Amino acid sequence: MPVNETMDVAGPIAGRGDYTFVDRGDWALVRVPPAATGWSWTGSGTIGLSRETTTAGPGAVGDAMAFLGEHREITRTSNGQTFRLIVPTEASLAESPTRILDSLTAASDTLRIGDRDDHVFVVAAPSRSTRWGVRGLQTGSADMWVRDNERLDTADNVWLHEYVHTRQGYTAATDVRWFTEASATYYAALLTLRQNRIGFQAFRDRLALGTRTPYRNAVLADPTTWDTVAPYTKGALVAGELDRKTRQSSDGTRSLQDVFSRMNSHGSAVTGSSFRELVRQTAGDPTVAQADRYTTTQETPATWDRQTHDRVFGTTPARISYALPGLEDPSGYRVSGPYRRGSVGTERPIRIATGETLTLDVVVSNTGGTAGEYDAQLLVNGQRQSRQHGRLGPSETRTLTFTHRFPTAGEYDLGIEGDRVAVSVRKPAKPTVTTIKAEKTAKTPAKTGEPRYAVVVTATVRNDHSFPAAGTLTLHQNGEPIETRRVELAPDGERTISYNETMARPGEHVYRIDGQTTTVTVDPSPTPTREPETTSTGGDGFEMITVLFAVVSLVLVFARRQ
Questions:
Q1: Which of 190, 205, 160 is nearest to 256 (CA)?
Q2: pTM score above 0.85
Q3: Where are the beta strands (DSSP E) in 480-522?
Q4: Bridge partners, residue 558, by sequence
Q5: Residue range 159-188: average pLDDT?
Q6: CA 296 to CA 285: how far, in whole Å?
Q7: Residue 194's closest CA among 147, 246, 155?
């Protein structure tokens, strides 16, 4: 059977492709094909009909959709509902199954809008090789799939968005069609806020999308005036405003959930007039006037501030969040040690050498409405290395500084409360000698009478790696090692080192450093040097001895001739 289905959807929960159901060969996410049945019986009594759908091979089946392929299934029962979370082998979850089920079951308890389905079938749709048309999809009574890379800590919580759809048991007429996506979007944000997964500002920013052009110009009761986006933006804002007005008018005893519940139990399609009546029964005429104003005209409500939210909805609890520096803040990670000191730059993973120390800044914030305690723990490959704790007031932010030294090479994962950065630690690279030259500078006379020649050998050394380099460089003269230097370089660093040498033997000399060689020739016929004359200041006595020596020498010469 052909099972691929596509759609062209725009809006906040649109995906990057167009698939809604797909067969990938080794796995498939498909609709359960319809199978009509009929029966008759004779005699008295009541006959019951039971139907069960299974897969031929690995797979899992809900009421309206099925996953075919290898997978694992995690179940949890809460509030009279059993959640079946299907995690395909090909899926890579951004959230743990436990956290996903925690969020879903908390929403199940919070939403008091009528009966709950006995079973909720949830598939984490693999997104690595499939370009889905939407981020999530609900179909049937309580079947839904959500892309495996969707997170819970966002106002656009798709897991909760699709779950709210499973609780919508009404049929909407054209002029109430907006409420379906509006309520799913609004409650996904509100429930995520109540679960302390986002702060109030993120919740408010989500609703504020409805105040932007062109969404604010839509008339919600008239679908011809809006595209598919308006219910998610202006519709969500209007749903929130009706919730706030209902809570205000009833001193907190009622909310939009009461209207929602009445819609679910309505015996026929909910039209604009019946929606108005349900709002009147719940919140009175002033709120009905607000509903008319914001659904039948282009007027758009404004968002409310935290103080209003705390007064009407109840104070939001402390919301402590932790954030590691991003690429836009290269100074947030600093390195120090034997090779360098300063920022590590924007390359990821962070590359450092063994023996270096990484310093990082962690921003801890309280976006909730009350003061709260923070407990920041630096984890290195899942093991706690250091810890800082304290207290933050509402809307307070603080920067904490952590340090960690890496003595051993390897791949490391640094984390603070789910925010992570990868660090690659290696032994220092080997410096590379790129050029070498030697120059004669002077002749130096020696006490022995033999001159010595001065030579300066200069080498340019580079590090072409993205982490430090270190090592020893030995100068060889005519094949013999004569001097060794240790060189340390930062990533992409370069420096020049000099060796000052002297030699007694003239001629051609070959110098070598790390495979690079140069030759210097010393003049073989140096100008001789004279020893300094010795003089004395002995006076006339010395002169007499000299004269006597000369006379004796002449006498000896004369006698020899005789």
A1: 190
A2: no
A3: 480-489, 494-503, 507-513, 516-522
A4: none
A5: 97
A6: 16
A7: 155
